[in-house]
Amino acid sequence: MTTPGRLHLTLCTLHIQLPGCRSLKEKRGRLAPLLAGLRRRFELAAAEVDAQDAWASAVVACAVVSTDATHNQRVLQAALEWIGSHQTDIEVSSTSVEDR
């Protein structure tokens, strides 16, 4: 539902596994295309927000801000589907979505 003049923030947190990753440099090399693709394709904010020192796992947050909470949900759902179908070198172990 759209409320005039009201901004909606929807945040999606992804817990990601990076099978076979043997160094932080390799981890960064695998996450960089994911983050850039999310930003470019879906016009959302995306960043690694936790587990920066772990080689084979990462926590990534994606945020969408608009005046329509339903739009935010659709954008994040499309982003999750894109990750599942195009980012075959990572595994999303869990997700959480919250509206603010």
Describe this entry's structure for a reader.
This protein is of the alpha+beta class. It has one domain: TT1725-like (Alpha-Beta Plaits, 2-Layer Sandwich), CATH 3.30.70. It has helices at about 25-40, 70-85; strands at about 10-15, 45-50, 55-65, 90-100. A four-stranded antiparallel beta sheet has the order 2-3-1-4. Helix 1 packs across helix 2 (about 70-85). The longest helix is centred in the N-terminal third of the chain and has 19 residues, at about 25-40. It is elongated. The two termini are about 15 Å apart. The mean pLDDT is about 90.
| Mean pLDDT figure | 91
Number of domains: 1
Fraction in helix: 25-40%
Q: Briefly, what CATH class?
A: Alpha Beta
Roughly what fraction of the amino acids lie in strands?
35-45%
How many angstroms separate the termini?
14 Å
Overall morphology = elongated
How large is the radius of gyration?
A: 14 Å
Give the low-pLDDT segments. none
**Helix/strand class:** alpha+beta
Multimeric state of these chains? Answer: single chain
State the fourth-level CATH superfamily. Answer: TT1725-like
Number of strands: 4
Strand order of the largest sheet: 2-3-1-4
For this structure, the CATH topology is Alpha-Beta Plaits
CATH architecture: 2-Layer Sandwich
